[in-house]
Amino acid sequence: MSQRTKYTLSALLFIAVLVADQVIKVCVKTGMYLGERIEITSWFQLVFVENNGMAFGWELMGGKLFLTLFRLVAVCFIGWFIAKEIQRNRPVGYIVCLSLIMAGAAGNIIDCLFYGLVFNNPPYPLTAEFVPWGMGYGELLYGRVVDMFYFPLVEWDMPQWVPVYGGEHCVFFSPVFNFADAAISCGIVALILFYHNILNEYSAKPIETAKAETETTEPQI
Question: How many CA atoms lie within 13 A of 29 on its CB side?
């Protein structure tokens, strides 16, 4: 596959994931009230939650502004890295994985950048609505990320004799996530499973560089 085709594929995949992610989020945000739960099956539910943190609702130390700026820098870096890897004639599947990661990160960035400006924050049980620019619930860079997919695949009650967690109700898989999170996760898992040889190249380079520097600085006898 030519470099031009790989650039086109990467761009189209990026746009497709971004559009799908935003369509789902807008439909959930304007069609469900915050905290609403819709049971599709016993192991798949739609749960509308919002968070300020990383993928799957995990929090990151450093504050909301740091997280948003970090995402922006990360997306720019991944875009530059994809271009470099295409020039090195990397496999198309490898480029697809990187494009999924970049698109997922960009999808959550849009929430952080603009949702606070264009959506209101109505009380229960009202659903959110679009408002004039800048009249929303937050400021630029301080929007909340919308999550909705919940897969409680297995549930059980911890035995009472278990220290600390005895008697607690446990759920696997408990995080609520969105389409962008799924794209990031699929891209990372596929990289590890199918392209670990390429990843190993980068992990080996610092070691080879250190060895070369050591050899050149060793005193000659």
Answer: 24
* Cβ contact 67:112 at 8 Å: yes
Our CA dihedral for 85, 86, 87, 91, rounded to 10 degrees, sits at 90
Alpha-helical regions (H) of 34-135 = 64-87, 92-110, 116-118
Give how far the C-alpha of residue 104 lies from the chain's centroid of Cα atoms, to the nearest Å: 5
Give the side-chain half-sphere CA count within 13 A for 47: 17
pLDDT in tens, 44-89: 999 999 987 655 545 554 567 788 888 899 999 999 999 999 999 9
pTM for the model stands at: 0.83
From the list 171, 145, 144, the residue with the least C-alpha distance to 157 is 171
Question: Which residues are marked as active site?
Answer: 147, 181
Q: Which long-range contacts (CB under 8 A, 24 or more apart) does 169-177 make?
A: 175/56, 175/57, 175/58, 176/47, 176/49, 176/56, 176/57, 176/147, 176/148, 176/149, 176/150, 177/55, 177/56, 177/57, 177/147, 177/149
